[in-house]
Amino acid sequence: MEKNRIRVLQVSPSLGLGGTEKVMQSFAVNLDRKIFHTATYSPANGPRGKLIREQGIETFVGTDLLSVLHKFQPQVVHIHRAGWAEPGSLRPFKLAKTPLLVETNVFGHHDPSPEGELIDRHLFVSNFCAKRYAAVNSIPTVEPKYSVLYNPVDTDFFLDKCPHDREIPADSFGRISRADKGKWSILALDFLPILKEKIKNQQITPFQYRIIGGIPDAEKYVADHNLESLVNFLPPVLTDSEIAEFLNSISFLVHANDTGESFGLVIAEAMAAGLPVITHPSKEMRDNAQLELVDHGETGFVAHNALEFAQYIRFLLTNPKEARKMGENGRAKAAKLFRAQDIAFKLGNIYLDLLKMKKAI
């Protein structure tokens, strides 16, 4: 059986807490183990490495990728990267004569280098990224070279841990991100003074804004505006169990990030947990896939400024039945489009089709 399985090496720049690494972990765990023997490689270890090993997946860590390729001899290498040229990074795959090289192009960038030609399939994580890539580079994003594969989300897990009939807090909402300034927008805070005034005028009751991934600027804003009673900064989380526990403590998600999302994993996970999401459009050519996930008035709201954020937050706080309906609409969409096992099945078929096309199996 082992000899017949196709060896797949998932490659990520780190084993940290980011969404890129989480997607790699999900692919490694959910690819059909009767067909594929999957391992992971990263030049640097991190907390996600332990989680991957706990799932019975071998991890290779270190700077000598070529040695790993010679040892594991993968028939498929799947790299997870931003998409732009990284001089020298693909050379080991050429030296090792890797039969099939697949890329998850996380941010939809173009690699015009000769090394970039080694990649057999570029996978975009959203239709937005594929369309922008085609428009900017005048390259049709069609098979066999290009396709869209949404990031996987363990929707079955979130359904189990965040069931339909659970009690949803009526007075709290939240946001979750890495504690990285690049993951923030002032829109994530500017609605607070507006809502504080509504509390003062008894138009709404006090609430709790629960934040994972707070940064010093956000903490200063809260202190400067005397908002400490309304905002609770929480420590980072790693596992889906911890994320589910957080999502069960809020009634909806507020997403605000000036750089936008090439997919929006935290949005998709909130949807999988049955929560509506409030987000905003990005400017110019920045990532905007958050609008591909959130359907205005159906699975949440798209706000354009702090006043609209405040209005939509007030609506969800004061209309719990409508909020729950929107959340369940989002859950259904997430299960249909992002379910991890379904995405992994599609990925496995992409590998098999490409290997057959290259006569590598």
From TrEMBL:
GO MF entries: glycosyltransferase activity
Keywords, comma-separated and alphabetical: Transferase
Protein known as: Glycosyl transferase group 1
Gene3D superfamilies reported for this sequence: Glycogen Phosphorylase B
Annotated InterPro entries: Glyco_trans_1
Organism encoding this protein: Maridesulfovibrio salexigens (strain ATCC 14822 / DSM 2638 / NCIMB 8403 / VKM B-1763)
Pfam families attached to this UniProt entry: Glycos_transf_1
Record keyword Transferase present: yes
